[in-house]
Every structure is written in C-alpha cells, then in structure tokens.
Batch of 3 targets.
Target 1
Amino acid sequence: MIIIYRYHSQVITMDVKAQRPEVTSFIRNQLNLTSLAEEIDQTTIYDTFSLDLPIRPDCIFKEGETLYFVDIKTSSVTIDTIARMNLLRELWRRKQTDSQEIQLIIVAKYFNPREEQLAAELGIKLIKLPWSVETSPNKEYHSSGMKITSDKSWKIVSRLLKEKNTSIRQLSLKENVSYGWAHKVIGMLLEQNVVKKESGYVTIANVKNLLNGVAWERPMKNLQIDEILVNFSGSHVAAQEISRTLKEQKIGFAFTTYTSGGLYTSYGFRQDAVYLYLKKELIEQFKENFGAEKNEGIRAVIYSPDRDVFSDTYEKESVVIASPSQTLLDLAGLGYSAMDLANAMVEKYGGL
C-alpha cells in the first residue's frame, strides 16, 4: 500500500505492507470519506507525537479534524481485538496536542453478536468486507472461487432486484439456474447483510453493500480497451448515429454505463462521451467510421465484453443499449463515480 500523509504542506510517501487499492477504496466508501481524505504514513505521525504504542492499525485516514484508525482482521474479531483498539484510542488522546476526533474501525468478514454489542457500546465502527475479499496478510486480496458478478450469479441477483421479495426456488426457476447455485449465491449475500430472509422469502436489504461488492469484484476499468474521439458534437446524436451505422453493417455492439443508464432512468445523459461494448478486432473499423480527423469531438469509451452482451439488447430513442441487468452491473463496476446513477437504476429496476 502506498500511504500518503501531508504534514505541514510536505507530502511523504512510503511503501507499506501490500494491500490492493480496491480494498482501501471499499473502506473509504464505507466511511463516506471524500477525495480530500488522506492515508497517513504511520511511522511519520507516530514519531511526530513520540508514541510507542503496543498496537498499530493497518491504516490511518485523516479528514479534517478526524483520524480514522482501521484494523483489518484475518480471523474472527475477539474481545482482545476490541480492547487493544480502545487502548490505542485512549493512549493517543493522552499524547495528542490538539482536538482531533478519533474514530476506531475494525474490518472483517464476520462479527460475533457479543463483540458487535461491545463495539457499539465503545463507539467502535464495524465494517464487513465484501464476500470475495481475501484478508490474509501473506496473500494478495483476490476473489474466491465463486463470483457474485459471474453471468449465472448475477442472474439471481438481478432477478431478486426485480422481484423484490421472493423465494430461492422461484429465483432458480425464473432464471433457469440450479437451486443449489441460487442457494449458494443467496447464502453469500446473507453473510454480508446484502439480503435478508424471512419466512422462506428473501429481499435486498443493503443496496450500498451490493454495489460496493460489485465495484470491487468487477471494475469496469479492467474491461476498457480504447477511448476514441468521434466526430460528433453531442453524445445523444453520436449514440443514435453509431447505432444506425453499426446496425446496417451487422456489427455486434451495445451502449452501456452512463449512456444506457441515462436512457433507462432519465436521470441524466452525459454530453461529453458515449460508452459501448465492441469486440477488440472491430476497433479499427470503428475508427474509420467515426474517428475525428481533428482533435475535437466527444469521447467514445469502448469496453471489451466478458460475456454475451449482444444477444439481449434494447432500443430506446434509436440507441441500441445493453439490457437493464447488464447496465446495472456495469454502472456498479464504475464505483463511486456512478453511484447515484446506479442507485437510480436500482429504484427503477422492477419496472424496466
């Protein structure tokens, strides 16, 4: 992890224990930190305050007058974990010379009820990691064998969003997915408090956790293969003309993310860019058709499909767009930058 601390206008960076940035980003989102929040070089700040503490958290964030001490556990959280974090806070308060607020955070996959209650009484925030994060310090974070964003798993999730309240058996039947697989998907989501189950029926309980988990597991930046300036002055006209031409040429494509999300929700339509799936081998033909000769126009952000996105497309306002299920998955994969539009898609999803 590269940790940055701005101290008296000096920026200090150092390479600390490896930790993928997606994990840090997930924690930042859970804490609702802004882009101004910084990760602090612990060695520098401990030396500054002449501290020799028996415990150091895995990372420290600073935003305004608040310090966030974050401890990421590789095993179950115990009373000893909570006691050590509380000791850290008390010792820090005795050493500090200003009025900074201290917030303790413990991050893990699972918390026992007793420890949850004790943490609440002490004002310690608990954050559950996404289902697919590996927390071992001796390994990189990676996905488990089953991904919630896989084609088969996402069918279950998107069907649950549409039905709102249904049984696991109905989910499996309506999406033609085995009951065992559907049960495993719901089981993972139950562990992360994404869904709740009552009287044999399940429903989405925490949309934020779901979208954050998708952003970590399937970031759209990994699918982006090109960004081309196209010879149009507006994104909606560009999407319409590109759709007309590629349909005539019988080329598989589908507009997605901001372009399709804006059309589905009427939440807003970006004027500076269009976003679409296109096979890599067709990039040069696309440039010949639409590329801007001068350094002007709007951007066409092109993604390479990791599944069949062309068989199930819709057409709205003469623009060929990815299905609602695919659009929501892709919007979630953009992370925080598209969170408002992703939430708008969730709200309208049942009627799409």
Target 2
Amino acid sequence: MKLIQALKKIKDLRRKVDDLQIMIRDHSADLSHETPVYPDQRQAVDAFVQARQDILKEILRLRIAIQRTNLCTPVTVTFMEREVTKSIAEWIHMRKDLAALELASYTAMTDRGLKEGVIRQSNGTEQEVKIRRYYDPKTRDSMKSMLQSAPSEIDAALEVANAITDLIE
C-alpha cells in the first residue's frame, strides 16, 4: 500500500467510525412502547461498538505505519538549484511551522529605519553616521526567497513521495 492510499483509507475509516457512532447513539436505547429496529437490539449495538473498536485499531495500525514510513523515508527537495534531503517527517515539520519561523529570523534583519547622514554633536562638531549591519544582506535576501518558496516546494515533493512510497508495515 502506498502512503497516499493509507492516508485516504484513514479518512474513509474515520467516516465509518462517525457513522457507527450515530448508529450507537440512535439505537442504544428506546422507550418501552417503541418497536426495536433490530430483532436483537442489544446484539446490534454491541456489534456497532465492536465494529467501531476494530476500525479504530486499523486506524491506529495505519497511523503507526505512516509514522514509521515518514521517519524512514528520505525525500530530496530542490531550493534554488540546491538539493536538500530530509525524512518525510522532517519535511512535514518544516512545512508545518519551522520554515516560517526560520523565515521570521531573516525578515527581522533590517536597518530598523535608521538613516545615514551627518549629525551635530553637543560640542558643535559634525560627525558622519553610517549604518553598521551585522548581517549579510545578500544572504538574508537569498534565504528569505528560498524560505518563502519552501512551502510549495515541500508540498510538491511530498505529494510525489506520498504517491510512490510504499507503507512500511
């Protein structure tokens, strides 16, 4: 089974779990004057509960297999002609929030609105003032560009990986 198939199967199983929850809710009790829907209503409810438990076990099995696969499967993503290889799990975390947090570091590197020029000192002499940058603007701009495009690059690589990667059971 491919990763994408497992992900879609979990989604379908979740729908079935929700449907069974409704069946349990709707048939777990009635009033004495009502006619039960099933010949043995208690057995039917027990069967719904058991089916739900079995499906939840299958969802858990698939989730663990997906996690194992995500941890063990390397994926290469190309950023501005530079290839970076990480596990699927690492890319998921990068995509979720870490790339944005790293981008914030480079976005914070600014001149803070400071102006170069000449200032008059208290003794009346003039002093030329220059901005000192404690970062390389070229590196900052390059990293910002790369990190801004990271989500779409990661998404594209993970879509391919999900389609071609076999689930590690």
Target 3
Amino acid sequence: MQDIDERIPYQRIFEFLSEHASAFPTERKRQNYLASILDRLKSIRTAPDSARFVVSVEWTRGGVYGSQAIAMFTTDNIVRTGEKTGGYGYDKESTAIADVLNKSPEVLKLFFGRLEAGLQAGEIDLEDMRESMKLVFGYGVGLFNSTDHFFDGGVGTNCYRRNFEAIGWTAEKIATGNLFDVWEFRKATGKGDQDK
C-alpha cells in the first residue's frame, strides 16, 4: 500500500484514534493529544518481540471489600507490576491481568500488528469497530479511544483464550492456589514448527 506513511506506526490505528478523539478546547491541546498517541504507538512498535510471557496474580486477604488482586508480567528480562484492584462486585483476576497487559507494549505490539493488518485489509470495519473487533478477537478487547486501554477488566479470564488465539498464541492457567494464580501466554506452535 503506497498511501501508508512509514513515519506513523500503525497508521490506520492512528487515523481511527485521531478521528474519534474527544473534543478539545484548543487546537494546541488536540495536537498534544495526537502527539502522545503517536509516541505511544512508536513505543509499542519498537517493543521487544517475545514468544512467551507469564502473568502471576497475587491475592491479598480481604477486608471490607474482600480479597484484592495484583498482577505481575514477566518475560525475558522484563518484569512489570500492575495496580492493585479495589472494591467488590466484579471479576478482580481479569481486571488485574488486563491492567498489567495494558501496560505491556510487548503484548500490545502483538495485537496492534494484527489489528492494523485487519484494518488495512478491510476485515475490521471502521464504521462498526466494536463489533468487527469482537468477531476477530473475541470479547474483552477493543480500541475505542485510547492506546492505554485495549484489554477490558472485569470480563472474566476465559476471554484470554479466544483473544490470544486470534494472534496465534495460547493462554493457559498453569497454577493456582489460595493466594495466587499463574497464567502462561505463548506463541502457538503448528505441526510444521515442531519439525524445525
């Protein structure tokens, strides 16, 4: 595609976010917002590649609002910790995991590459982005107004299997206990890959 500007990573994603940006009181504030989106997209595009990562969720004993969760992302030499959940009445495990995944450009790189390809190919319809993305990625992910919020919290962890399957990965809970859960995310291997 000749019309894609190589200086803008994920050009179709950038165009969508800039077209659907909230109203700003001044043009300068709008330009600052677009510059921050562009910086974020560049950091995602240049994030290191990974074929596997682990997300561990630690639970603290409850108080007034019950047990709370905090997730830690680990891959290669990178460790990142999300925010602790609060309150009650929602799925805290998926919320903690979504928070740390949204902070991990290595993960967003996988999804944004697939999303950009889908936008360029017309597989994902800009006019009905929410439903188009659900058809491609399944429930629990979306890109509607920010690069900082792709994974939804409170949706249940079963969504991750379908979400990651859409990019050729697997998501599996590999350990669980009273105060912890561990998820492994890895690039799927096909029959041909095993022979190499």
